[in-house]
Amino acid sequence: MPKAHHFNVQVYRNGRKILSRWPTRPQFKLRRSWTERGRTYGLRPGVYTWFVWPAYSRTRYGRMLGRSSFRIVGR
Questions:
Q1: Of 11, 13, 7, whose CA–CA distance to 67 is shortest?
Q2: What's the pTM?
Q3: How many Å apart are CA 75 and CA 72, to the nearest integer?
Q4: What is the C-alpha separation between 19 and 58, in angstroms, rounded?
Q5: Is residue 1 part of a domain?
Q6: Exposure on the CB side of residue 44, measured as CA atoms within 13 A
Q7: N or C terminus: fewer CB in 10 A for the chain?
Q8: pLDDT tens, position by position, 37-60
Q9: What is the extent of the structural domain holding 63?
């Protein structure tokens, strides 16, 4: 399998996509807040699920590398 040029990281909160990034290295740090399509998001209570795929070009992706979930509880 060729080396990935970049990766697609997607994060969902309660089933709704809130982040999509394309890092060039196989790591990504989720910050407390970020802007996606002109809207500011932040980590708040809910269930989050993330997915990662390798990308070998803009149209050719590999099998999902990872998927996991985490929960942030209210204060």
A1: 11
A2: 0.83
A3: 9
A4: 18
A5: no
A6: 7
A7: C
A8: 898 989 999 999 999 999 988 788
A9: 6-72
